[in-house]
Amino acid sequence: MGIFEPYRAIGYITNSVPFSVQRLGTETFVTVSVGKAFQVYNCAKLNLVLVGPQLPKKIRALASYREYTFAAYGSDIAVFKRAHQVANWSSHNAKVNLLLLFGDHILSVDINGNMFMWHFKGNEDSPSPVGQVTLEGQFSPSCIMHPDTYLNKVMLGSLEGSLELWNISSKKKLYEFKGWNSSVCCCVSSPALDVVAIGCADGKVHVHNIRYDQELFSFTHSTRGSVTALSFSSDGQPLLASGGSSGVISIWNLEKRRLQSVIREAHDSSIVSLHFFANEPVLMSSSTDNSIKMWIFDTTDGDPRLLRFRSGHSAPPLCIRFYANGRHILSAGQDRAFRLFSVIQDQQSRELSQRHVAKRAKKLKLKEEEIKLKPVIAFDCAEIRERDWCNVVTCHVDTPQAYVWRLQNFVLGEHILKPCPENPMPIKACAISACGNFAFLGTEGGWIERFNLQSGASRGSYLDKKEGRNAAHIGEVVGLACDSTNTHVISAGVGGDIKVWNFKERDLKSRWEIGSSVVKIVYHRVNGLLAVVTDDLVIRLFDIVASRMVRKFEGHTDRITDLSFSEDGKWLLTSSMDGSLRIWDVILARQIDALQVDASITAFSISPNMDILATTHVDQNGVYLWVNQLMFSGSSNVDTHASGKDIVNVKLPSVSSTEGMEFEDRDENPSKPPESKDLSGFHISSQQIPDLITLSLLPRSQWQSLVNLDIIKARNKPIEPPKKPEKAPFFLPSLPSLSGEILFKPSESANTERAEKGVDNEEHKKSDITSSQFLQILESSSEVQNFSAFTDYIKGLSPSTLDLELRMLQIIDDDDRQEPEKRPELISIELLLDYFIHEITCRNNFEFIQAFIRLFLKIHGETIRCQLTLQEKARKLLDIQSSVWQDGLNLNFESEMENYIGKRKPTIGLSLFTAFSASFSSDKAKSPRDFENGVVGLGIVAAMTDSHKFHEPFVSSKAVSPRSCSIPIVSSAKPAANFRGGLNLEKEQHEVVDELSESYTCVTSHFGNHVIEKRVFFNGELEMVNGRSSNMVTYGVFSTSPMSFGVAERGIFAAEFLSSCHLCCKHLHGLDIFMYRGEKAFCSVECRDKHIRGDDRREKCGSKAMKDYSALPCSVAGPPALASGVVAA
Question: Which portions of this protein are annotated as coiled-coil regions (predicted)?
Answer without folding.
Answer: none
